[in-house]
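Form 7-S
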Amino acid sequence: MKKLFVLAVAVMFVVGVAGLAFAGDNPLRAAEKKFNSEIASLVPSNHIINAQQFHKVWEEVLAGKRKAHLIDVRTDTEFAAFHIEGTDHVMAGHWYVIPKKIKDPNAEIYIWCRTHHRAITGPSIFPVSCIKSATKMSGCMMKE
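Output:
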């Protein structure tokens, strides 16, 4: 009986917390959207390309016609499950390693992820670091 009571309390707790997390008027969601919009506005529009443009760059890099860094900023698990041939992996949040690995401040860098939220962070902070600019692929792998 004691185990059943503990299980019932645990289920009620999980359902209650899930209800709060998925509430439509969650102020944290609005704040997150505002923050993402502010960060996205820091990326110049000429540094955002679509999937077709990214594909062209990717083909040129693989053919050796273009020297560019293609960086996948998804999680380790997502990268292990699937990644585009020739891309390097830097997990989002670990942007500090990029200037250490790419010494040329004028390097051509293309960043992509499953959604755009992680990909916008890098290009928005690079001008503050020693890298002058980066380009983000819009649309990424998941339609929003």
